[in-house]
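YM 10:42: L-threonylcarbamoyladenylate synthase sequence, as discussed on the call
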Amino acid sequence: MTLVSPDTLISGARAGQLVSFPTDTVPALAARSDRAELIFTAKQRSPDKPLILMGASLEDLMPYVLGSAVELEAWRALARRYWPGALTLVLPASAAVPRAMNPLDPSTIGLRVPDCAIAREILAQTGPLATTSANLSGQPPLQRLAEIDRAFDGVLTLDPEAIGPLPPASGLPSTVAKWIGDRWEILRQGSVNLQLPT
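YM 10:58: structure's back
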């Protein structure tokens, strides 16, 4: 059993260990972005399924994208409207993004700020983390932290008793929008009903 306190989880994440904590959608399996390969191994995940970089704020994530001044403002505008929230933005990646985040297409990166206070508190102290749902590939996302603790040996999982009651998570995946050329394209419709500028 590796149910841990927030402080232990934060220290472990900083040290490069796999961790798991709640978000506003489903619990996350997370690691430092330069240790993203740990997530692919633990989940038995195909390299053609990139990870999401989750951060505590928009400004924490901006160093990981590369665009013109006009593009950056368009991206910020949509992020300000929906973050924190269940919207993942897929944007051109800067050199700060490790290739292991998206092994087959390192030119893009998915970014998100969760609408979950404990997740943002953790991310504010660890810095942005590589994340995905906590489950083996092809299986439904695990919803309870205790289930994750049993399924993933050695992953530091946040102890629910250490954080008290949380608002209910949606259990739905995030909506995913990708910037292509000069406009947004919805890749996955999730819990956010995205209203795109025309």
